[in-house]
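Reference record:
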Amino acid sequence: MRKMQSGFTLMELVLVITILGILAAVALPKFAALQAEARIAKMNGVLGSIKVAAVLAHSVQLTQQLTVDTNITMEGSVIAMTNGYPTTALASIGTAAGLANGTVAIAGFVPVATSAAVFTVTPDTTHANCTVTYTPSSVVGTSPTYDNAGLTAANCQ
């Protein structure tokens, strides 16, 4: 008696491989776009954290009736202030925002003080243009400025 063998024909295997290749070609660019969107969302969260930290530090200074350049203490950390808001030092706005513990950055973020006037944060070392910035007020009575113009798909991809 002859045994019947079962299995896939070569044509069926080629067809399945072709379909998987097409699906991979369609899904891969979408996956890459999701990574950029995730970085942008992460950095928008960082910006929100910086904004809240600056306002909270300002309110602590106001409620304690301190002068505008007097340091404050938030959760045991000394936060240096200038014109009523945290300075750009990592131990100041970085610590107040939860991005650092004193002068040590917390993993997952790269706070970079590019100058004494601007505090810049990037998601990692390979996406240097995917940034948010904090610039404290240079005049007493005005709010700091925040910038997330670097959060584009091209910069965060």
